[in-house]
Automatic annotation (TrEMBL):
Keywords: Cytoplasm, Kinase, Magnesium, Metal-binding, Phosphotransferase system, Sugar transport, Transferase, Transport. Its EC number is 2.7.3.9. One of its GO terms (cellular component) is cytoplasm. Its cofactor is Mg(2+). It catalyses: L-histidyl-[protein] + phosphoenolpyruvate = N(pros)-phospho-L-histidyl-[protein] + pyruvate. Pfam families: GAF, PEP-utilisers_N, PEP-utilizers, PEP-utilizers_C. Residues 17-163 form the GAF domain. Belongs to the PEP-utilizing enzyme family. The gene is ptsP. One of its GO terms (molecular function) is kinase activity. This is phosphoenolpyruvate--protein phosphotransferase. GO terms for biological process: phosphoenolpyruvate-dependent sugar phosphotransferase system.
């Protein structure tokens, strides 16, 4: 069975056109299932009709018959999204006799819907003269076949690799969907840049003169270093240092003796510079890729980007920038930060990446540059090079050859956007009060870069979350106490007199260190965060001492513990913090102060134990990213279940309410540092629940401050009180959209067009 199934799917996937593919499908399926008839129907674009696309056994010619979605047994299968297995089809109440098909001779009928990600693409049917129920094995064969066929059909449709009558190639407007990576809208011609050689297409090759090859590589490294310095300088005026850190990361990697040594070794073995580069880069990227934390695994792309850039300079002939006459929407296979840097800013309206996710450095950079970006768009760019297009960075939509009406609509949106961005940067450095004078403190999330310094951001009250794991991941070994001390000191000094909350190492099963691999079945439920550091007091104490030392003379340090799931962990961690403090006190001189100690609320167990942490911590901060993951039992990195990961889920809101109520009752300072805090809707939900302190990424600060200033705490509180009674996230979202419209704030939530 399995071999037959694989054979059918292989044949279908290799067909040159959709018609050929479907003809092969019905022929092979009929043969494999020993039936007398097999047919396939595909859904029309408006989802109202099913067209007979191929048949072996029916009288009708393909594409001459179509059924309404409410007609016959085929319509019933499409509507019900369920297989139908009948011994005698003609007695079923939904049976409809269609003369042109002449199926009266067939009695038994088995059909399955062809469904891809909840979307019904069509129906696959087998029929037989003999009055018999198809067996369970036959039924499951057809269901499995349909599921595999659905993937091929959906992919072919997205890439337009097969033309069909249902989706005619025409001059009509085309629409594709991707992941929104940077908000904003743009209207311009598409520019598909695929001219550079790709590192993954380098084939094994050797060299005769290793010295010459070493020289070529040396020159390429020098040129690349110069280029990164140039790019950094160019962006310095516009970007914060956090984002610019990508260029520092590249420089850091290029100066890394280990990387250089590995490249040299490879060339000395007789490989060409290009082939040596590919092998070394792939091995480095592989180490990052193995990490299941999305942010860290995406660093593999940074390493590849570095390789790509070096490859470019190995073949460099003196031309650095794309020569564009007009502003364009840049389309790339894999968007990279250097690619963004190589296009003059006045020529870049938006970017589209066929691959990649919203957390890559390139996505972060495009957000910081204010360039709309969508990632993971499935379409064939070679068909549309230089065609006019619209990018909607809010919803992730791409419209090619847009209609006049759509251009008009988006031009108006662009004008509104311009006015909005001027508006939100006003009074950025002032504190944030609601209309009824409730203050919301705004803090920064930092640390997701290799840079030792972080952005001096206008208008923030301090750092609400400094993630310390990146330096641990970028090295070949644990960073020394001195290395950590210097880094933490720079950060504390960047925010004099403002609190800086440093989180202790949140590493483990999901973020394995390259030099300490951890193999686990269930990494998110495994050895991570405080579980790892308590098992390694050596590493933990080193970090704590570095933090305490860095605080001498600064006095603005708070230490936060991640992934606490019970009180013993908290008590043990506190003990180690005290030990570190006492040790530093005995060893050093200066202006000492005890750091405040806090914990993240990420594991649902702590909701029940919250009253008991009073006295053990000075503050708490809610990590909604993980709290949502654990509360809803949904992997935060798994695209297949991303629709289940609902930030506005009623259970998430109820948990957040319980946390704030308990914290208020016990006068425990509380903040939120998950992504919800920097989300336009999320920040109001949190305000309405009573939170007075939010921590977010740089790009959200101005927006959130502006939104909060437009509302009164009282009205939002009333609204949120009603939302807590809703049964699903959809209803909550709908009401919030209504509120944003009422307040003239819909410009901030244009998603979902
Ligand atoms: C969180 O879980 O919400 C959080 C802020 O931590 P991280 O995203 O680093 O896991
Ligand atoms: Mg977390």
């Amino acid at each position: 069975m399995l071999t037959q199934l694989r054979d059918i799917v292989d044949h279908v996937a290799k067909a040159e056109s959709l018609d050929d593919a479907l003809a092969l499908l019905v022929k092979n399926t009929r043969h494999s299932m020993h039936t007398e008839c097999c047919s396939v129907y595909l859904m029309s674009n408006d989802n109202l009709r099913l067209e007979l696309m191929a048949t072996e056994g029916l009288k009708a010619k393909p594409k001459t018959v179509s059924l309404g979605i409410d007609e016959g047994l085929v319509g019933l299968v499409a509507r019900s999204c369920e297989p139908l297995n009948l011994a005698n089809a003609s007695v079923h109440p939904s049976y409809k006799y269609i003369p042109s098909i002449a199926e009266y001779k067939f009695n038994s009928f088995l059909a399955t819907p062809i469904i891809y990600r909840r979307q019904n693409l069509g129906v696959l049917v087998v029929q037989q003269k003999e009055k018999r129920q198809f067996t369970e094995v036959e039924e499951s064969f057809l269901v499995t076949l349909s599921a595999q066929l659905a993937v091929i059909l959906a992919h072919a449709k997205a890439h337009e690799s097969w033309s069909t009558q249902l989706q005619p190639q025409s001059i009509e407007q085309k629409q594709f969907k991707g992941i929104s990576a940077s908000n904003g809208v743009a209207i311009a011609p598409l520019w598909f840049d695929d001219a550079q050689p790709r590192i993954e297409s380098i084939l094994p090759s050797s060299c005769l003169d290793t010295e010459q090859e070493q020289d070529r590589l040396g020159t390429a490294v020098e040129l690349a270093l110069k280029d990164f310095r140039r790019a950094k300088k160019r962006f310095e005026q516009e970007l914060n240092t956090e984002t610019l850190a990508i260029f520092d990361l590249f420089t850091h990697l290029l100066n890394d003796p280990m990387l250089k040594g590995d490249l040299k070794k490879q060339i000395n073995q007789g490989d060409s510079a290009e082939w040596a580069l590919r092998q070394v880069i792939e091995s480095y990227a592989g180490r990052f890729e193995k990490m299941s934390d999305s942010y860290l695994s995406e660093r593999a792309n940074d390493v590849r980007e570095l390789g790509q850039r070096l490859l470019y300079f190995l073949n460099y002939e003196g031309k650095l920038e794309l020569d564009l006459a007009h502003p364009v929407i840049l389309v790339t296979t894999q968007l990279t930060a250097s690619m963004l840097a190589s296009v003059p800013q006045d020529k870049l309206k938006a970017v589209i990446s066929l691959e990649g996710a919203a957390n890559s450095h390139a996505a972060i950079l495009s957000r910081a540059l204010g360039i709309p970006a969508i990632m993971g768009v499935e379409f064939n760019p070679t068909h549309y090079h230089q065609n006019l297009a619209i990018v909607d960075g809010y919803s992730g939509a791409l419209y090619i050859k847009p209609t006049e009406a759509l251009i008009q609509e988006y031009t108006e949106l662009q004008n509104e956007e311009l006015a909005l961005s001027e508006l939100i940067t006003q009074d950025l450095d002032k504190p944030t009060f609601t209309r009824d004078e409730h203050q919301m403190k705004i803090y920064l999330n930092a640390g997701l870069s290799a840079d030792t310094s972080i952005a001096v951001n206008q208008g923030v009250d301090g750092v609400g979350l400094y993630r310390t794991e990146i330096p641990f991941l970028l090295q070949q070994r644990f960073p020394s106490e001195e290395e950590q001390y210097l880094q933490y000191k720079t950060i504390l000094e960047t925010y004099p007199k403002k609190p800086v909350i440093m989180r202790t190492l949140d590493i483990g099963g999901d973020k394995p260190l390259p030099y300490l691999p951890i193999e686990e079945e269930n990494p998110f439920l495994g050895w991570r965060g405080i579980r790892f550091t308590l098992d390694h007091p050596d590493i933990f104490l080193l970090q704590l001492k570095a933090m305490v030392r860095a605080n001498i003379g600064n006095g603005n340090l708070s230490i936060m513990l991640p992934m606490i799931s019970g009180l013993p962990e908290l008590k043990q961690a506190r003990k180690l913090i005290n030990q570190a403090y006492e040790e530093v006190l005995g060893e050093s001189e200066g202006d000492f102060s005890q750091p405040r100690i806090g914990m993240m609320i990420e594991v649902p167990s702590m909701l029940y134990l919250l009253p008991r942490v009073v006295g053990l911590v000075d503050f708490i901060s809610v990590g909604t990213n993980d709290l949502t993951q654990y509360l809803l039992a949904v992997d935060r990195n798994n695209a297949r279940v991303s629709h289940v990961y609902e930030s506005y889920h009623p259970a998430v809101l109820l948990a957040l309410k319980q946390i704030i109520d308990t914290a208020n009752q016990y006068k425990l300072p509380v903040s939120v540092c998950g992504e919800l805090a920097g989300d336009p809707i999320g920040c109001l939900l949190l305000l309405g629940l009573g939170y007075q302190s939010l921590s977010m990424n740089t790009s959200n600060v101005a927006k959130v401050k502006y939104i909060i200033r437009q509302v009164s705490q009282q009205e939002v509180e009333q609204l949120v009180a009603t939302l807590l009674h809703h049964d699903d996230a959809e209803q909550i979202l709908t009401d919030m959209i209504g509120f944003f419209e009422e307040k003239d704030l819909s410009g901030f939530i244009r998603a979902g067009r």
